[in-house]
């Protein structure tokens, strides 16, 4: 909420040619914050339509928080019976997939957000974008599959079990994970260019399995690196250079959209596409650099002090619990099971 105040205060000062042309509602979204800021305070902003959207990217924080709140239901079920827990996760994933198929087919939604912008016409500008975003894109029940996969993988790793896989199986799973990730990214290449028409069934399939497949691919990378099957990839991902960037990822996410708006408004005319390399050099790279520099100071001011206070409180509670329990009980709470 502190950054929402920062965003509302400074956004009118950085608006430029992009804001009054291509930026549109994205550049003037700060006006919604003056009336609907409380949606963000309670992390329910993804349940309202686009016209009430305060700082557009925060819908993801709302979804993440909502899924975090329901995660104990699955964890408790896994703890009571791992079979019942995994069955519940699979049923919820299947329900989410069925729901996305229903929405895509019944409303004629496209495969990805980028093509939703191309679906508008002069007579009904913005309606398809609004429906796509409000009904599908920002809802937790259509976004839950990667989160549920993460819960399943996390519980498996916490159990301390290591399956026996030969080298051929490990290599095959790496190849399968890479192919799945690449298909999720580059599968709609011709579709985006307009060279290939996708039916609503195909679009629904991509809407479902691009994120589901991506989460499975990432899950294999995590499992393989954790269990010693990562090789050179594990060495690269475990390098200490990633630690500071990882700690800044949350603050970087919060601030980056503000700086996208700022950089695009620096031009003296409305923005237009020239080439992908020009976009990277003049917009992409500067946005990343400036966002992370600002995120460092923002994190030091707000995020790090709160995290340190929480950690101190948790350490005190842990010490108090250890003093009041027997060695057998301590092993139960903090043993190899990770529970």
From TrEMBL:
<keyword id="KW-0472">Membrane</keyword>
<dbReference type="GO" id="GO:0016747">
    <property type="term" value="F:acyltransferase activity, transferring groups other than amino-acyl groups"/>
</dbReference>
<feature type="transmembrane region" description="Helical">
    <location>
        <begin position="248"/>
        <end position="265"/>
    </location>
</feature>
<dbReference type="InterPro" id="IPR052728">
    <property type="entry name" value="O2_lipid_transport_reg"/>
</dbReference>
<protein>
    <recommendedName>
        <fullName>Acyltransferase 3 domain-containing protein</fullName>
    </recommendedName>
</protein>
<feature type="transmembrane region" description="Helical">
    <location>
        <begin position="170"/>
        <end position="192"/>
    </location>
</feature>
<feature type="transmembrane region" description="Helical">
    <location>
        <begin position="212"/>
        <end position="236"/>
    </location>
</feature>
<dbReference type="Pfam" id="PF01757">
    <property type="entry name" value="Acyl_transf_3"/>
</dbReference>
<feature type="transmembrane region" description="Helical">
    <location>
        <begin position="280"/>
        <end position="307"/>
    </location>
</feature>
<feature type="transmembrane region" description="Helical">
    <location>
        <begin position="67"/>
        <end position="93"/>
    </location>
</feature>
<feature type="transmembrane region" description="Helical">
    <location>
        <begin position="100"/>
        <end position="120"/>
    </location>
</feature>
<feature type="transmembrane region" description="Helical">
    <location>
        <begin position="140"/>
        <end position="158"/>
    </location>
</feature>
<dbReference type="InterPro" id="IPR002656">
    <property type="entry name" value="Acyl_transf_3_dom"/>
</dbReference>
<keyword id="KW-0812">Transmembrane</keyword>
<keyword id="KW-1133">Transmembrane helix</keyword>
<feature type="domain" description="Acyltransferase 3">
    <location>
        <begin position="32"/>
        <end position="295"/>
    </location>
</feature>
């Amino acid at each position: 909420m502190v950054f929402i105040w920062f965003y509302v205060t400074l956004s009118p000062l950085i608006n430029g040619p992009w804001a009054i042309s291509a930026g549109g509602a994205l550049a003037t979204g700060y006006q919604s914050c003056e009336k609907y800021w409380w949606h963000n305070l309670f992390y329910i902003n993804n349940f309202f339509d686009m016209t009430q959207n305060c700082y557009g990217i925060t819908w993801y924080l709302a979804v993440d928080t909502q899924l975090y709140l329901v995660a104990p239901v699955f964890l408790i079920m896994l703890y009571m019976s791992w079979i019942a827990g995994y069955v519940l996760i699979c049923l919820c994933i299947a329900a989410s997939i069925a729901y996305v198929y229903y929405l895509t087919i019944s409303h004629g939604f496209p495969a990805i957000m980028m093509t939703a912008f191309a679906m508008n016409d002069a007579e009904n500008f913005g309606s398809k974008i609004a429906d796509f975003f409000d009904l599908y894109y920002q809802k937790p029940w259509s976004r839950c599959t990667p989160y549920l996969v993460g819960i399943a993988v996390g519980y498996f790793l916490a159990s301390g079990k290591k399956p026996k896989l030969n080298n051929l199986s490990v290599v095959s799973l790496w190849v399968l994970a890479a192919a799945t990730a690449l298909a999720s990214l580059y599968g709609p290449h011709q579709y985006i260019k307009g060279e290939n028409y996708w039916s609503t069934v195909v679009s629904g399939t991509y809407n479902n399995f691009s994120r589901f497949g991506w989460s499975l691919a990432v899950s294999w990378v995590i499992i393989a690196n954790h269990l010693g099957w990562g090789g050179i990839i594990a060495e690269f991902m475990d390098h200490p250079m990633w630690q500071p960037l990882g700690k800044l990822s949350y603050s970087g996410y919060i601030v980056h959209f503000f700086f996208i708006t700022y950089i695009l408004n620096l031009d003296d005319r409305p923005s237009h596409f020239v080439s992908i390399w020009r976009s990277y050099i003049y917009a992409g790279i500067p946005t990343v650099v400036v966002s992370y520099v600002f995120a460092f100071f923002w994190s030091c001011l707000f995020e790090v002090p709160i995290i340190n206070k929480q950690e101190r409180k948790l350490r005190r509670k842990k010490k108090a619990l250890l003093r009041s329990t027997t060695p057998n009980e301590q092993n139960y709470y903090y043993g190899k099971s990770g529970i």
